[in-house]
Design goal:
Blueprint lengths: L6 H8 L5 H12 L1 H4 L4 H8 L3 H10 L5 H24 L5 H22 L2 H12 L3 E5 L4 H14 L5 E4 L2 H9 L5 E6 L6 H12 L3 E6 L4 H5 L2 E4 L15 H19 L3 H17 L10
Parallel strand pairs: 1-2, 1-3, 3-4, 4-5
Helix pairs in contact: 2-4, 2-5, 4-5, 7-13, 8-13, 9-13, 10-11
Amino acid sequence: MNRPTNLIETIEQLAPSLKKAERRVADLVLQDIEATTRTSIKAFAAQANVSEPTVMRFARRLGCDGFSDFKMRLAQDFAVGRMYIEAERKVQSGDAGTTAQRVYQSGMEALSTAFASLQEHALSEAATVVAHASRIVCLGVGGSSALMAQEMENRLFRFGLPATASADPYKQQMLAAIAEKDDAFLIFSVTGKPSSLVEAAGTAASRGAAVIAVTLPESPLARKATLLLPLAIPGDEVHFNFPNRTRYGQLLVIDCLSALVGAMTRPESARRLHRIRRTLLALHGPTEAQPIGD
C-alpha cells in the first residue's frame, strides 16, 4: 500500500471530509496522539463510540495494514514532530559569533572522537585492499554520506585507481550484482541502516568482493561488511539548524585512507598527480599553495 509521508498531517487534512463515525476516530486520535499509540483497538473503539471494524477501515484508509501498524507509524511521526518542536525552541538567536563558536566546538569534538576510535590495523588493511582492488565502488545515501562517497571517488581517481561513486539506490544494487572477487566496496553511512546500502553490501560480499563499511558499530551495515572502520560520534544536542557533525569524522577517515592509499601506490600515484598539476597550470598558472592534484 502507498503510505503517507506524515500520518498526523494526513489525518488533519482528511478529517473534515470523513463521515461521522470515522470523523470521531480522527478527532480522538488528534485529541491525544500519545494516548492513541498506547491503547488497544477495543479500548479505542469504545472511547470513540464506534465499532472496531470502523477503526480498522480508518487505519486502512491511511495506508496502514491494521491498527497495530497505524499506532506504530503514528508513534514515529509523533516522535519526529516533537523532536523538531523541541529543537526549534532551543535554536540560538542567530548571533554569528555564538553560532560560529558552537559549530567550531562541535566539529573539534567530532574529530577528536573519530581520531580516538581509529583502529590502525583496520585502517591499514582497508588501504591495502583499496590500493590493490581491480575496481573500487564508493556508496552512500542521504546527506553527508552521499557526499562522502563522491569525495572518496574524487580522491582515488587522482591516483589512477578505477573508482566510481553512486548515491542512487538502484544503481547501487546493479553495481553490487556485478561485483567481482578483486573489487572493493567502500560504503559510508552514519546510521548503518539504509536498506539500499545494507542490501548492496550483502550482495557484493556474497560475490566475494571486499566490503569496507565506515559506519556505526553493530549496525545492519556493519554486520554485512567484511571490514569495518567504526565511526560512532555521539549526537550533539538536537537543533534543526545544525547539521550532523558525524561528517567531520567521515572526512577524517577519508583523508587517512586516501593518504595511505597514495603512499602505497607510489611511485605511480605521484607521477599521476604531477601530470595533473602540469595540466592544470595551463588553466590558472602557477599557484604554490594549491594542493597537488587540484
